[in-house]
Amino acid sequence: MKVLIADKFPEKYIQQLKDNSLDVIYEPKLGENDIPNHIKGADFLVVRSTVVNAKTINDSDNLKVIIRAGSGYNTIDVKTASSKNVWVANCPGKNAIAVAELALGLMVALDRRIADNVADFRNSVWNKAEYSKADGLFGKTLAVIGVGNIGKEVATRAKAFGLKVYGYDIIKLEGVDLEYRDDLEKLISEADIITLHLPANDKTKGMFNKNMFDLMKPGTIFINTSRPQVVDENALINAVNNKKIKAGLDVFIDEPEGKDGTVKSKLQVPKNIYITHHIGASTEQAQDAVAEETVKIITTFADKGEVIHCVNKK
Q: Which residue of the set 48, 197, 227, 309 is catalytic?
């Protein structure tokens, strides 16, 4: 059976696939529009953030399983896959700690203005008086919006910072170190820090709009390491400019598909917006855990015909 890996994947796990008598085609630089030209003959397609569109699925001749080497699968055309009897699977929870670490890092970075500190120093500017004005995080109220695998890890780490942690989710997981709130708007209005860990779907699209930002206290720290579709970026910019909201984002609309190059976004203008390069899951620890689970999905299907973590059960 043939495996097409269209994103970066650790070498030792590629070797594990080969050791299981699988034919591995490793093309980590393929983009959304390149994959259709390489999909012929592949039984498995492995991607991270690269889009798998309808053309890729329709042009395939032997595709059985598409694996998202990560959690969110909104970049895969699941509807078309289902119509073509192609399974779609993901690796839930394997990058949760890495994303949680980045979310906490962005909170600290915004409070202490770490990026601005570094930029000034590199430009030969010394401004200790200005950068000594941070509030600090201890004792602040944190709202975790979306308490799944990642939200749970954020809560655990936030408690170590001395934050008062509250959560909002339709499904309430047990054993999470936070207090659930049912009134989202009240929670948003009371929080000092808000961190989003939501999937992209019809219910969450544009969820954080002007009304939500109007509820926030001036100076609120706002973190989104989940999906860009859940935030109205124009409303965010307005809140940053007029309410001194401080935003830390790992995702944004029209993010470049490639791994390097130039980038242009309206989010580059406001000073109180820090953006990282969609690196939430990009630690070696997380990538190894995801790769190991991906290998497990492929080998289990090859051996038993079973699809682990299937998201489109037919």
A: 227
Alpha carbon distance 233, 237 (integer Å):
6
In which element (H, E) is residue 287 found? helix 284-304
Asked if 103 contacts 152 with a C-beta cutoff of 8 angstroms, the reply is: no
Return phi, psi of residue 141, to 5°.
-95, 120
Catalytic pick among 38, 112, 157, 278: 278
Residue 38 annotated as catalytic:
no
CA-CA distances (angstroms) from residue 15 to 10, 33, 38, 193, 306? 9, 27, 21, 43, 22
From 32, 190, 255, 292, the catalytic residue: 255
Secondary structure of residue 167 in the 3-state scheme: strand
pTM of the model: 0.85
96-275 CATH fold: Rossmann fold (3.40.50)
Active site residue 278: yes
Ranges for all domains in the chain classified under CATH 3.40.50.720:
2-94+284-304, 96-275
Residues 177-221 pLDDT 10s? 899 999 999 999 999 999 999 998 999 999 999 999 999 999 999
Tell me the per-residue pLDDT of 14-33, one tens digit each, with 9 for 90 and over.
999 999 999 999 999 999 99
Domain 2-94+284-304 has CATH 3.10.20.80: no
Q: Cα–Cα distance between 130 and 186 in angstroms, integer?
A: 33
**Whole-number Å distance between alpha carbons of 251 and 239:** 18
Q: Specify whether the CB–CB gap between 60 and 40 falls below 8 A.
A: yes
